[in-house]
Amino acid sequence: MFVKHKSLTLKYLNSTRTVLLILKDKIMSILTDNVIPGNHGKIFGTNAIEDLDLLEIKSSLLELDGIKDVLLNTDIFPREFTVHTSKMIPISAIENRVKLVGFHAIPKGLFEL
Questions:
Q1: Highest taxon of the source (predicted)?
Q2: Which helix (H) or strand (E) holds 68?
Q3: What pTM was computed for the model?
Q4: Architecture of domain 1-113
């Protein structure tokens, strides 16, 4: 009788572990595929070099619903910009918007400060 309960307990623990792993994957997918509203924003690298090109990228991104600010970092190469949002925005929407201007946007890692 004890062995049967132990088996059920192990099955329960394994299924709970599986559910937790699936939830972890879903949460990580949300974090890596979207820009989450908040103070950190999301940093992107770009192949745009000239200040005028970066300003064009900024103005194009600010037209997207939910983007509240774009900060340009022209002190480093490759150039970077940080996007702050008021709602969850897919990274693909930002990448596609920058492509329309003629450049690329490559998201940097999670929670870079």
A1: Bacteria
A2: strand 67-73
A3: 0.79
A4: 2-Layer Sandwich (3.30)
